[in-house]
Amino acid sequence: MSDPSITDPAAIVEASASAHPRRMTLNMGPQHPSTHGVLRVVVELEGETVRRAIPDIGFLHTGIEKQFEALDYQQGVTLTDRVDYLANLSNNLCYALAVEKLLGLEIPPRAQWMRVLLVELTRLNSHLVWLGTQALDIGAMSVFLYCFREREDLLRIFEMFSGQRMMTSYIRIGGLALEPPRGWQEAVSRFIKAFPSNVDQYEDLLTKNPIWLRRTRGVGHVPLDVLVDLGVTGPVLRACGLNWDIRKTEPYSSYEKFDFEVPTRTEGDVYARYQVRLAEMRQSARIVEQALAGMPEGAWRADAPHVLLPDREKMKTQMEALIYHFKIVTEGFGVPAGEYYQAIESPRGELAYYVVSDGTAKPYRVFMRTPSFGNLQALPAMTEGRLVADTIASMGSLDFVLGDVDR
Questions:
Q1: Is the pLDDT of residue 31 over 70?
Q2: Does residue 151 share a domain with residue 53?
Q3: 37 with 107, same domain?
Q4: Domains: count for the chain
């Protein structure tokens, strides 16, 4: 039998602590309010200073990547919602783009622009939850209440489109699940016009707040080269000065037609990550406004009867449509053999789906490159040698979702 101390984080830290009698081992977790999900961090302390921190993951492992192999391609969309519950539409989009590339589907402009609008609203939703919970962890309760006030408006918009507040499964292979509902323009416009003034409120409460500054400025700094080596992406990397955003560098779903900036900072600390995410919320609102103003007319899904279910009226009157409906529902649709890696910019960083098809109606393999997994690897570098009180601020600034880590 192998020695469990080789892989057990507690055994590693306890062995180190026994060699240093003045050190203490502390279990932070396996649940903690500064995380979205269940994480255990085994911390070795010398007084108030963190000498070692080892994340212990796997408490939320669901086997989602394996589950894909038992479902047909369209059914797999429901699994993507549950990887990162704060960015479900981003996961919908990434998976759909990968399968559409294998199918050779051409997505109508209206569907592409609607996807951009929805994933940017998703980015706002995610950043609002991050800001509210990060502020709460550091001791600012009012910001949490304000952020969730705006998030509630966003959840109502998602429910308006899909019938669901969170697990929407609204972006599907070939386009959208349903035609955009009547009155959606007014609902989105009303929210997005008021949103910049709400961000001003968050800034008024935090940006120059002396307590916030002392808890965030200079805390959790990691050099850029270390972050790159660890596989960190997204706002954490851009807060260290690297201007890398897949929406700009490798555009998808018509992002090249939108005018927006990629916010960066150079300080690389908790405060810089806060500034980057706040600026990203303003840029996402800017993209949504452009999508509203320039939304193309036309179809909301591709013309692909062998992939997409026919309209119910056609199914009732046309034999060909009825046959397609029967075959898609009972057998799914075949995808040409091949493989494709699709990356997008999720609220947390580079999200990618690698889909392998063997020519049948079910994926041979689906692998996810989730940003939270890479970002969590930076936690030891952010906390070791620093005060234990700063661990919570550093941990929250990574904005990881444990379902996105464990899958």
A1: no
A2: no
A3: no
A4: 2
Residue-wise pLDDT tens digits, 264-291 = 999 989 999 999 999 999 999 999 999 9
Alpha-carbon gap, residue 242 to 232, rounded angstroms: 11
Whether residues 85 and 128 fall in one domain: yes
145 and 256 housed in the same domain: yes
CATH of the domain at 251: 1.10.645.10
210 and 355: one domain?
Answer: yes
Give tens-digit pLDDT for 356-404: 999 999 999 999 999 999 999 999 999 988 888 898 899 889 988 888 8
Domain encompassing residue 406: 1-60+375-407
**Whether residues 135 and 254 fall in one domain:** yes
Query: Is the distance from CB of 187 to CB of 160 less than 8 angstroms?
Result: yes
Q: What is the pTM of this model?
A: 0.90
